[in-house]
């Protein structure tokens, strides 16, 4: 994919390095000369410009990008970049960094955001996920809140141990997408069986999150 990243601070550069190592074409857009350091991610294309200016984005070729990541440390900038990417350049996927959790409600489809990433929320979710058994932990919100990635960990004495995935009766708007077991990542097949301690990842709507919990006996 061709990916544009607005903001070449520590976060933007780290994302760029990961994407480049995975074989993607990356363009870093940075206004601040202090953060403009092409040697830090040599494989990326670097553009010194204001990502909030339409003409700068046109000159940079944002219309050719499959994904735009608004990764600056300023929520206002990230919202403007997201809106321009979606409305002016019809970018298929727009991901925005949320710096202040109180601004999270703004990062929606109305501002062109497909996925909002809030570091405080992710950290809190990771803490909950590591210590919580039998509770639904929301890891990420997808598609402007239309769906969530949630996790629930089975206790060691779960009555579902040894039972096949096909025997689970889940609500209609919930899909089991991954089972984490020790160091393994399992894409569940109908005949796969569950074990105590399994971490189950679902894509679901908020309305049925508690129904998942009930279906697993919690």
From TrEMBL:
Residues 137-218 form the RCK C-terminal domain. This is Trk system potassium uptake protein TrkA. Keywords: Ion transport, NAD, Potassium, Potassium transport, Transport. It comes from the Bacteria. The keyword Transferase does not apply. The keyword NAD applies. It holds the Pfam family TrkA_C. It comes from Lentzea pudingi. Residues 1-117 form the RCK N-terminal domain. Signal peptide: none annotated.
